[in-house]
Amino acid sequence: MKLVVFETEPRERVAFEALGAESLHFETVALNPASLAAATDADVISVFIHSRIDRTMIEQLPQLRLIATRSTGTDHIDLDACRARGITVCNVPAYGENTVAEHVFALLLAISHRIVEGVARTRAGGFECEDLQGFDLSGRTLGVVGTGRIGRHVIRIAQGFGMPVLAYDPMPDPVYAAEAGIEYCALDALLSEADVVSLHVPATAQTHNLIDDAALARMKPGSVLINTARGSVVDVLALIRALRSGHLAAAGLDVLPGEPEIREEAELVCAASPAPQALAVLAAEQVLMHMPNVLVTPHSAFNTREAVQRIVDTTVENIREFFAGRVINTA
Ligand code: NAI
């Protein structure tokens, strides 16, 4: 059994070594057409979210039987193509719900207390704060879109700040709502009543551009959008329009739709015939990253010591079970 682990840090490797695979190979890079050769005879691969596994790639991995992604989301993997080839895909269903929820508030508090500008000010030797007035979270309504594992932790933390909560989920859980003391409502009502909207939905065809021009127009003037879910959930051009017009006060984004392109920006721009749509998204993201009322983090909401350890432990367990003929955590 050959196992190839992509996108690994040296400190994660010891756990994979303990699996005792007949052949084990580590790659620091993502699985992409350039690094594919390392996995052509692999039975099992483990990847993170920067490995985009499409049908063409799968066709070039003839022995592959298991993809163990070290993430919750599986939108970087063509699950239909895997199913058609009989390849099992396992994910890490839960590892960082508190971690991502904490990052939501890191972004939100950085916006509400103007932390990034304040730190830049003191580092430049300034100490004036008159023009750095923020706003309280207490008393402001939080709209949580998607009340799964992360959304529920966000709600719990929000309540500690004294924020009333509205929630939307196509699969509402009335028992949870009663226990948590929150109200479910329609998405339109949430958008028009919340002062802060935080997104916690998976990337699916239904959530693609869920927050578009129309949704942004429904949002309360002066409200804030936080997206730690997936970039595809927000139409970035529409978001720029809403921020530029002043309709939205600010945005905190841990995810962007063109994340692979940003990482390989120079390659994309220098390509013989770059895709116009990819260039447009790249340009939009550069604009967002430089807007003073937008904070962008590099898809790092999950990245704490504790969460990464939980990811590795579950992934190793997924592979160990597969070696033993059992399948757990199928995506
Ligand atoms: P989950 O599966 O526990 O919850 C997702 C919730 O979204 C479910 O309650 C589901 O019913 C709801 N939902 C589905 N479609 C919806 C729609 N159209 N509108 C509103 N709600 C909808 O997932 P979890 O663990 O809470 O994670 C949410 C997402 O967060 C993941 O799918 C992943 O994309 C993202 N994520 C981001 C990370 C980061 O580092 N930024 C780390 C981990 C997850």
Description:
By secondary structure, this protein is of the alpha/beta class. It is built from 14 helices and twelve strands. It has helices at residues 13-17, 55-59, 79-85, 97-112, 115-123, 149-160, 174-180, 187-193, 213-218, 236-244, 259-263, 265-270, 276-290, 305-323, and strands at residues 2-5, 23-26, 44-47, 66-69, 88-90, 142-145, 165-168, 183-184, 196-199, 223-227, 248-253, 294-296. β4 (66-69), α3 (79-85) and β5 form a beta-alpha-beta unit. The longest helix has 19 residues, at 305-323. The two termini are 22 Å apart. The structure holds 1,4-dihydronicotinamide adenine dinucleotide. The site of 1,4-dihydronicotinamide adenine dinucleotide (NAI) has 31 residues, from α4 and α6. The site of 1,4-dihydronicotinamide adenine dinucleotide has 31 residues, from α4 and α6.
